[in-house]
Amino acid sequence: MELSNSEEQLMQILWKKEKAFMKELLEAYPEPKPALTTVATLLKRMQDKNFVGYVQEGRSREYFPKVTKKSYFSKQMNGMIKSFFNDSASQFASFFTEESNLSEKELKDLRKLIDEKLKDK
């Protein structure tokens, strides 16, 4: 399941904070800040999608992410590779290295990461 752009923005805040009350979430937004009702609606939708949970603290709720940033990003990347690159990591890597204007050092670092992964296999 995917998040909308506004839900993803809120998840970024939650991932950074790890847990937060509504007031803390609102304070973390850049200007112009959304309305409290907007954030409450986003949180409800994200709970329904099982991305966010909460612990009741008196009359307040402390929200926390139920999905890790790494897990979410991994699913997004795999979906993108499947959709845009015919499920081919090689096509993705080719596009990424050609279109991202990587420096020679960055390309060498990528090669090192791949070589290390190959040794582990």
In summary, what is this structure?
The protein is mostly helical. 64% of the residues lie in helices and 12% in strands. Strand 2 (52-57) and strand 3 form a beta hairpin.
Describe the structure.
8% of the residues are buried. The radius of gyration is 19 Å and the shape is elongated. The chain has a 3-stranded antiparallel sheet with strand order 1-3-2. Helices cover 64% and strands 12% of the residues. The protein is built from 6 helices and 3 strands. It is mainly alpha-helical. A hairpin with a 2-residue loop joins strand 2 (52-57) and strand 3 (60-65). The two termini are 31 Å apart.
In terms of topology, how is this protein built?
Layout: H1 5-17, E1 20-21, H2 22-28, H3 36-48, E2 52-57, E3 60-65, H4 69-84, H5 89-99, H6 104-120
Antiparallel strand pairs: 1-3, 2-3
- What is the spatial order of strands in the main beta sheet? 1-3-2
What summary fits the major beta sheet? 3 strands, antiparallel
Name the structural class. mainly alpha
Number of helices: 6
| First-to-last CA distance | 31 Å
Order of helices and strands: HEHHEEHHH
Helix content: 55-70%
Number of strands: 3
Poorly predicted ranges: none
Task: Sum up the overall morphology in one term.
Answer: elongated
Radius of gyration: 19 Å
* Proportion of strand residues: 5-15%
Question: What value does the average pLDDT take?
Answer: 93
